[in-house]
Amino acid sequence: MNFLLENATIVSNNPTREIFRGSVRVEKDRITAIGKKLKAKPREKRINLDGQILIPGFVQTHVHLCQTLFRNLADDLQLLDWLKERIWPMEGAHTEKSLYASARLGIAELLSSGTTTILDMGTVRHTDAIFTAADEMGIRAFIGKCLMDRNDCPKELREPTAQALKENLDLISRWHGKANGRLRYANAPRFVISCTEGLLKDLRSLSEEKNLLVHTHASENREEIKIVQSMTGKKNIAYLDHLGLANERLVLAHCVWVDEDEQSLLAKTKTKVSHCPSSNLKLASGIAPVPTFRKAGISVSLGADGAPCNNNLNMFQEMRLASLIQKPVHGPTTMTAQEVFEMATLEGAEALGLAHEIGSIEIGKRADLVAISLDKLHSAGGSDEAKSIYSSIAYACTPSNVTHTWVDGRLVYQAKSGKVGGVSSEQILQDAKRERRKLLQKI
Questions:
Q1: How far apart are CA 273 and CA 252, in angstroms?
Q2: For 182-194, what is each residue's pLDDT tens digit?
Q3: CA proximity to 375, closest of 426, 415, 405
Q4: CATH superfamily, domain at 58-351
Q5: 3-56+358-417 carries CATH number 2.30.40.10
Q6: 74: number of CA atoms within 13 Å, CB side?
Q7: Backbone phi, then psi, for 53, in 5-degree steps?
Q8: Contact predicate 236/217, CB 8 Å
Q9: Residue 345 in contact with residue 359, Cβ under 8 Å?
Q10: Residues of each domain in the chain carrying CATH 2.30.40.10
Q11: 0.85 cut: is pTM over it?
């Protein structure tokens, strides 16, 4: 559909970081015109965003849609206990139906809170269900089957290496590049602890051959690092570099405990880091040295992680925390509102290799757009100055401020309608509750 968004305060993220009052024309899936005084074409649909802010959609570079049904069921545990006692048993109990319901619930939350693109790690089985949900609801997504082939992995999730790789290839052939490129595949070994060296080497070759992202966890928890060192003789980043995986296609979630040598490797190899502040705080993992990373030239974007370690998928919360948790140590001017907003948008796009397509409001880019109203009790106030606008977005807004979300020019969320991705919120909730009950009974 072609339409004109009028009278918005446009936070462009363009090379000069312009913020101005104006209009944006969308034709099919692209932004075709931007201006302060665009005139509507004959019979063109006009959407008045007077008093609202128009931003590029948020990009989350670490999410687990398979875990959305587990929200509020895994509190007050450190990472490895959290996985062994709660998450792995629940992931192992997933059916195709429960995984589909979990993915739909998560996608609905993401779209209604302004996230238009995700990098998702599924569980070991039924990955088609996540792709199907993403396809139907309209989110832009990189999705990968979780890979766990070591003999000491939990039996309900462990797979023989050959079987895991075959299914991985089958999923690539079915889904990579589908929906006009909106859906893509990302290889997703869970972490070094769960994967054999042979599997990781095969994924390196596959990533090179097909130009695919590799998405995994690294250096999230001190105990995890000790186990990796005992297994490999190296720390996480050094080991991944040793295998040839550390490069511009690798996205590492967390990187809380990374020494100077490994930080140098991250910068040298152009490996991307996904910072998940809520998750790192809730699991008592620590605080990643993000200001140090950024000074070293390391790409850092943001992700909410999974609902059981957060307990929501709200990018506004991640921006706020990413900024505030660094200030007591690094000073009040560290991690400004504008910096974390750019991490949540353009830097996320860069991490996924999509900065030429999304992450800013520019002519020729995909129409992944979000409208925000500040006319709420918790966000009223401020001025039209850029600093105040960034502050409003990063520090004051919540998902309730989002009025519209578009992906590829398709309206996938409108607050007034109560629908997300063409489905009523009530239906999504009912399906999720039903499948959650079944899953818990099964466990």
A1: 5
A2: 999 999 999 999 9
A3: 415
A4: Metal-dependent hydrolases (3.20.20.140)
A5: yes
A6: 30
A7: -105, 135
A8: no
A9: yes
A10: 3-56+358-417
A11: yes
